[in-house]
Every structure is written in structure tokens, then in C-alpha cells.
Hints:
Layout: H1 23-37, H2 51-65, E1 72-73, E2 76-77, H3 84-96, H4 100-126, H5 128-139, H6 142-147, H7 153-173, H8 177-198, H9 201-216, H10 222-249, H11 253-267, H12 281-288, H13 310-336, H14 349-364, H15 373-401, H16 407-426, H17 431-459, H18 464-473, E3 479-483, H19 488-493, H20 496-499, E4 507-510, E5 524-529, H21 533-536, E6 547-550, E7 553-557, H22 558-561, H23 582-587
Parallel strand pairs: 3-4, 3-5
Antiparallel strand pairs: 1-2, 5-7, 6-7
Amino acid sequence: MEMALPAVKRRPPPASPAARPGRALVASLLLLGITLFIFPLSLHHPLTDPDEGLHAAIGQEMVERGEYLTPQLLARPFPDKPVFYFWALAGSLRVLGFSEPAVRAPGMVFGLLGAITTGLLAGTILGRRGGWLAGVFYATMALPVGLMQVPVHDLALVPFTNGALLAFWRAARSPRAAAVLAWSLAAGACLGLAIITKGLSGVAIVGLAHATVCLLERRLGLVVIFGGALALALAAAIAAPPFLAMEHAQPGYLHYYLFERHLLGLVTTTQRHGTAAWHYYLPVVLGGGLPWILYAPFSLAPFRPSARDDARDQRFGDATRLGWSLLLTGTLFLSLARSKLLTYALPLFPAIAVLASVAWLAWLERGGRQPSRWFARMPVVQASIGALILPAALVFAPAKYQVPHVAWVWGVALVIAGGWWTAARLAPGRLERAAALGAMLTAATLAVALAILVPLVATVTSARDLARTINRSGHFPSQLWMVEQRRGSLVFYLDPALRRGLTSDRILQLSSPQVPEHEPVPGTLVAVTVGDSARLAQYVPLEGQPFELAGHYRIYDGERLLHTRPIPSHPPHPVDDRAPPAADASRR
Length: 588
């Protein structure tokens, strides 16, 4: 009779260095997080136009008027954007005061939530390590990093589209009908919040990706379809009250926003941003997804360990199908729409993070061995991009925005470039040290750009100095004509006493050709930036005219400036915030 021996408990093999982040890497990632989400709030560079100043002024008016149902600017309803982001902005201004950090705090928060929800989406499929990778990848991609610095509604859209995708992914794989419907309701709640954040674009992007994955995996059963319909119904119920409130405040709003902005923006060129080429989003996705989009193609053929692991293969396959479905169908949908703007593509960038995390996770699970000759070259390409960011900014910013050169930053740029070269050399054999060095170099690049270059650019794209000059005068002119510029930051920086009771007919936004068509009332002032003066001089004689300098603005006496102007050949048509002049549209 054979005696059964007690089972010997085997210890799991020690984790490889790649699986155990060291202190240097953790400290570097912490430094990167501080630089991304906390350091920008310590800066007080002026709000820029058009978007940052405009949104700040609307949030400010919500707080001052105590009217939170409908966004307004200068007592006029603002129908171009839904209300959710303005609520967040108004809440930040109410708590932190009317300051630049208060305006930028919601963008930082939603940027962080975008990274967290991207990590949750990837982690649900790939596990904890894959989630951490995807979250870091999203937070350090070019376009998300850039947009985190300004208050744009698309930042708030990303957490909701990520949440809806995660809930739909769970719903399609739940074995019980009750679980399918519960997850579908969670997806519907996220979609409802997406609608009151940015309209119907998030619903379309999520719906296309979810349907594509279900078709590829043959999961499009009756319960899943019913769950999708239930999600849409809940989303509509959540979104209805704010939209109906806007319709009540401004009759015709629903026709304008849903028909003109959405339907006509989708199929015609009649709307703003409606003349871009069909391939507009290709460079946006490719350039905005750097550096991690370099690794996305390797997710198509995961380089797995030699021993077959069905669970690992399933994880890689699920994440790859979801990532490519979101990226390709979303890009196709946005490309077919006639109205295009780079911020519209932001909900697609979590897909790039998920795909890159598949490639990196497969690499790490091989113990850091390079899977292919092309993959081995990616760290060098990535390092080259990192090394060129600051030099490119130092060349581009002064040329485009007429800001002064900062000579010593070139020395910093060279040091950072050398660091990226070192990181590329370390990557094949010492991945953790290379990653830690890369995180520190990314933090250093962002810190220099935010502390040195961004304030210089912001100063010449803001009306803060113009507002301060008007504040010192103690009264607002009977009319102020802003030539080739938007009025958002001006309104935000005005003294409350001057802003109180101010209406849109006292601040006109005009293009240069429109200036000689208008009749100035007594006390009219004309404000034009130094850079736009040459354009205005083609239509109005500026030579020899006295002006007051307000930062980069010149302020002219409107009556004196236009007393010899030609008789207008057609009725004047001032520009409002819904239809910016051509100069503003091209600038955005």
C-alpha cells in the first residue's frame, strides 16, 4: 500500500526586475505626476484666447450671476457647448477664486481622470501591470499633455467614454442577463454625462467601437442589443434636463445645437471648421499619439513567451481588438464628418495607450528580451523625439508668436537631448533605469516648457494687459472694437465693477475688413495687437495715428481713426462668439 506524501508547497519564482519597479522608477513616476498635474497650477501665466479666456469668462459669469442652468457670456446664452464642463469650471472658480490656477484646475483633474480611467480600462483586460502602463502612456502622449494645459470640454469627455467602453466590455462578457443589463445601465450613465459634456460625438465613438468588438467576437446577442438600447435610453434621460433648460432660456437652441451643429456639421461644410481635408485626423492621431503610437503596431502580433499560455493570449487578443476598434472606427467617423478640430480626436487616444501597453506587457513578460529588430529600434526613435521637443519649441514659438528667445534654454535642451541618448542606450539591457531616466527627462522637458516658454506665448495671445489698462482708466469705453481677437480673456480680467452690466454690444469682435464698415459712437476705442496692425493698416490708415500701448495691444481713438474711412458698400456685420472671424478660425 502506497503512502500518499504531503503536497510540497512550491514558492513562486522571484519576480524579474522588469516585474518589480525599483525605487528609482517609482520616484521618477511620482516626479512626472507632480510635473503633469500639480506644477502647472503653481503658474500664473495669463489666460489665452480664444478657448481658455472664453470658457473662463462663461464660468465666471455663472458664479457672479448665480445662474448655473445655462452658460452665458455678457448676458447672452452661449449655445455652442453643453453645460457640464462649465459647471466644473464655475465650481473651481467659486472655491479657488477668479484666478488662472482656478481656471486650469478642472483641465488637470479631468486629464488625471482620463489617465486613471484609461488605466482601469486596460487593467480590466490586461491586469494591474497593463493598467499602470496604459495610464502612464495616456498621460504622457503629446496631444493629451498639451490639452491638459487649457480648459477644453474634450478633456472631460474622455473619462466618460472610457467608463462607457469599460461597462459595455463587461456587459458583453457577463454570463447572466441581469449582469448584462446592470453594466449596460452603467454605460448609459457614462454616455449621458458624455452628452452633457460634448454632445453626441462620444456616443457615436463608443457605439461604433463596442459594436465592432461585439461583431468580431460574435457577442452581438439579443440581451446585449437590448442592453445597448437601454443604455441609450438612460443617456437621453440624463441629458434631457440641461438641454431643455437651454431651450427654455433660448428658444431654438435644440434646433441650432442638434440640427445645425451636429447634423449639418457632420454632412456639410456650412459649419465652423467645416473645410478641412478628409485626412485631417491622420497627422493629429499620429503626431498627437507620440511617442507611444510607435509601439501600437506591435500589438497586432504579440510576442509571447515560448510556452503557450491561453489566458495570456486571450488577454492580449481582447485588448488588441478593443484598441484597434476604437482607434480605427473613431478615426473613420471623425474623418467622414465635415466639421473637424483636433480636440475632437481626444477620446481616441486611450486606444493608443491600450495598444502600446499590449506591446510593452508582452515585452516585459519575455523578461525584457527584444522581440524583433524593429521593436528594438523604437526606444531610439522615442529618444530622438524627446530630444527634439525643446529645440523645436525654441524655434517654432518665437517665429509664430513673436516672443523673445531665451538663450540659456538651448543649453538645457542640449542636456536633455544627451539624457535621451543615454536612455536609448540603456533600454536594451537596463529597462528600469532607462524608464526612470525617461520619466525624469519628460518631467524636465514639461517643466521648462511650462515655466519658460508657455508664459511667453500666453502673454501675446491674451488680452490681460488690455484689461488692466482699461481697469486703470476706471471706466469702460462706450464701445470697444477688438480687431482679429476674441474677447474672453478681456472680460475675465476686467474689474467686477466694470464688468457688471456689460453687454455684448459694447465689445465687438471684428476682422480687419469689417472695421471701415462700422460707424463709431462717441468714445469708441479700437484695440489691435502689434502683430495684427499690418493687416488692419490695409483697410484703415494707421500711420501717424496716436495710440496707447497696452502690452502687445495698441489702443486707438475710434472716431479719429475712422473719420476718413470709405463709405461701407454693404451693411455692417459684427462678429459674435458663435461665428468667429476667419482669422480666429484659422488660428484655432
